[in-house]
Specification:
Blueprint lengths: L2 H15 L15 E6 L6 H4 L7 E6 L6 H12 L5 E5 L11 H10 L5 E3 L2 E3 L15
Parallel strand pairs: 1-2, 1-3
Antiparallel strand pairs: 4-5
The structure holds zinc ion (ZN).
The site of zinc ion has 7 residues, from loops.
Length: 138
């Protein structure tokens, strides 16, 4: 078991032990809104939007894009769970601004290892084993 997994499981156990009556919250978000935002680890929607459990739907992806899947979630949020407002929240210094589809395709074609970035751009370790499936990423 990885150190990170142990940490996450311990945090979840502590969180669950203090969950109390929140397990009885209704499924529809109490404040009747949804946020679509970036997956950036520096963003904490609960903090920047003042959310507690049960308040709102939070849909996240790379760049906070209104992708087909994000729209699917927002439609369900509205049609089945009663949200009345949606907010799309972007942020400064978004990593999605650092590459293009073509850069991503080339990196994936080169290898499936984690790429690195410096002042001259993104670089793949170039150890082979890449995939042409990246051609479908947009
Ligand atoms: Zn971002």
């Amino acid at each position: 078991m990885s150190t990170i997994l142990k940490e996450v499981l311990a945090a979840n156990q502590a969180y669950a032990s203090d969950f109390g009556d929140k397990g009885k919250l209704p499924m529809p978000p109490g404040r009747r809104f949804a946020i679509l935002t970036c997956m950036d680890a520096r963003l904490d929607p609960a903090k920047y939007a003042g959310l507690a459990e049960g308040d709102a739907h939070v849909i996240r992806n790379a760049g906070g894009r209104a992708s087909d899947d994000a729209i699917r979630s927002l439609v369900i949020s509205y049609k089945l769970l009663g949200t009345r407002e949606w907010f799309v929240v972007h942020h400064t210094d978004c990593g999605m601004e650092t590459f293009t589809d073509d850069v991503m395709r080339k990196l994936l074609r080169s290898s499936l290892k984690t790429a690195s970035v410096d002042a001259s751009g993104w670089h793949d370790p170039g150890e082979g084993g890449g995939s042409a499936e990246g051609e479908h990423i947009s």
